[in-house]
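Structure, all two chains, one model.
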Amino acid sequence: MNPIALEGLTVRYGSRLAVDGVSLAVPEGAVYALLGRNGAGKSSIVRCLLGEQKPSSGRVSLLGREVWKERASILAEVGVVPEDPDMPPAMSPRQIARFCSRLYPRWDAAGVEARLKRFGVPRDTPFGRLSKGQKGHVALALALAGGPRLLVLDDPTLGLDAVARKAVFEELIGELADRGITVFMTTHDLAGVERIADRVAMLRQGRLVLDEEMETLKRRFRRVSFPRSQAADVSRLEALAPVAVAARGWEVEAVVSNYDEERFSALPPAGQDGAEVSALTLEEIFIALTGEEEER
Amino acid sequence: MRGFLAVFEREVVERRLLVVASVFLGLVPLATPWLPGLGQLGGPEVRSATALALALCFSFGLALMLGATIIVRDLAEGRLGFYFSRPVRGWAIWAGKLAAAAVLALGTGVLILLPTAAAERRLDLDGGWWNTHGALAGSSFSILLWIASVLLLLLWGHAAGVAARSHSPWLLLDFVGLGFVVWLAWASIRRLDFAGAFGPSALVAIGLLAAALLALLAAGAAQVLRGRTDIRRGHRLLSLTLWGTLLLASVAAQAYAAWTLAAAPGDLEEAHLSAAARRGPWIAIYGSSRGRPGFTPQFLLDISTGRSVRVNAPPQDFWPANRFSSDGRWAVWLELQPGASRSGPYELLRLDLRAPRSRPERTRILYEHLPSLLAVSADGGRVAVVAGRRLTFEEVPSGRLLASAELPQELGRYEDSLQFVDPGRVRIYGFDVLSNADPALRSGFEVAEVRLAGGGVVPLARLEKVEEVMVSRDGERIVARRQSDGRFAVFEAGTGALMAELPPVGERSRALFLADDRIALVSGATSKELRIFSSAFVPERTFRFANATSLRLGGEPAPDRLVVATAPRGPETARWDLCRTWILDLAAGTVRRFASGMVPAAGPLGGPENAASRLFLRQGTQLVEIEPESGRQRVIAGRART
């Protein structure tokens, strides 16, 4: 059973289509990163995933059950970090933790205290007066305290500085190593997620354009740089079926999505002259795939 | 339940300062006697009134404010997800927050009242302006009303808050829905009020308020449970639930009003006779009807054909009864003018009783205040009313005011009857103002006349120290008992001159005019004696009824035939359910028993041409016509008690 399964999920806001027939599955124990530009539909998917919003059509299953109908019982095993921490501003982290402890069957009060201490978050200051980073840390500490089987993180590092981002990811890595929790995460912090994600999906204008293992993805994508003079030979460039092409100074860079070393070696010798092949970061792949529309 | 309690506690704790504020506010009334200008007004009353006013204002204001914010602010500012991303059921979020708001609004009110209650050693929720109309009897009702008002404000605040902050086009539907539902509800209540159905009208008003409370509760629940963190979807669900439910309730109210007002004489559980035309088959009846508590419909009924017309007026003491013209052609009565409030103006209506398909006809005669007396001329062409201290004459077909006269203070207040003597003269009969409540204080029975020609009020007669007065059918003679010697005497109404003295009788006696101007004198305690005197006061017949402690005179269904009912003594009062009904032959002096358990529905003024002289009440609830010769019975309206 996949902890998360979406089938043909569609979300409309009036006549605007925010999510268009998205289907995906997150396997047990995976760290799944859903990437997309602002407005791509990530938050709508998260809201549907948590049973906060009813999809216009399609099915959303969480831990094997339909989340719209069984939200409260399912969420007892799910930890959530929202995009914008939404705790009551007048309550202190300690009060919020006490409130939450009454709602979860398993609650690690000592763990919350320890994490907040580790993050350096004052426990008795009203939530509204905490910094953005501290709020994120509180949200993460609470999400982990209920002993979740599944973590849903909606851009947990949004607006955090580098140190805070690092702390969040380190905490996550530690938890994942300890417990093997399944994680579903949306984020813009591609460098951070690249270290921990097993599987990546990308959304563009509400549609899922990519969903695969991180390793496969990174193996599949390569940057091929040609001297500008040779790149003018279009037939050679087309043979690589690039997903993005950009001219930089005396070079032309092509991002290839189905890189195959044997096939590349088999190209006519002229094609190899001066050509350089290099690996791509997740961020570069993301830009190549989702920035394409705008660049064109 | 765990989620509900957690949410409830959190909301209360977060707003704990309100509790502190209410405790301080509760101390304010204790200081009022020392405030400038209030010290001399009487300490306890000022303290109580201040505490009550503060408590109500604070709890109502708080209910509205909390209603508009306790969920809506979180929703609009994107913080409701805090609850929805945790294992808390939707109902627990809705009910927990609502209960917390209600407890805060009511609890702070109680906290404001407590110091004053402790100081006064009582908690008087029924005092002062809170209960000025006497309708709110008992503290429990006041507390219930307070709770209901707080809940209504709370839920209304929530609905309004969602509508205002969703920035959704459904706001337009809200305005349309509000307007339409209020219009429908108001129309139902007005319709019932107009028909004098004040009981059903109050029932509809209370029912609609309860429906509004339930609809707001259900709409808020739908918004939170189904709309969750999506304020626009929540607003759509709230609007659909709220206006759908209220529309159903308003339509149900309209249907109930229509059903109530569709009452026919056949629906009457109890039927009573209120008037009868002097000639012809028309009578006016009223009574309670099935499934319509608090509504006593009134009908004009042709007992020969069964045709009926409902009269939109309550058959109550303060409302002048329907009048029939002496020729039996016209019926006139007063109704609220359509669209008017309960306080008027009132319109005169009439019905042509001889036209087979006639409908009530609106005259153009309006009265600002409800008249206390109404009279119609013999041909139905003119009416006279007394409203306040003013008597007016109107011509019915044209609606023209013919005359108006102020009743002088020194004549006292005429409130017994008003009667046309001829088309140009009307007489007012009544005891003077202070006397009606207590017979011992009755000082005089007065007769005055207002004439079209010449105008003004002309006092005609004043009978000092009399009681048990009856005016003859033509209004020219009065029979009354003199307090001085206990004897009945007949007086000329136009002058007050003594015409005759009837033989002395005991205390439990009465003298009454019959339809043909003869006089009946009823006397006796354990058995009754009925003596008949001619119109010239000559003794004609004497009838005796053994074992009868009460005797009632009916009309004369045939010439020289008088109906009488006698009842035996009961443990406390006479047993009219065991009564015997007799027909007396006044010419031959014979007595014939022709029914049991039938009490004459009308008094002795009905003659042979008057349908009421053949009508009887069975068991006090069923109106029955009895043919005097054959004894054949026919139920007119009402049901016999089983």
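Chain A has two domains: 4-213, 222-279.
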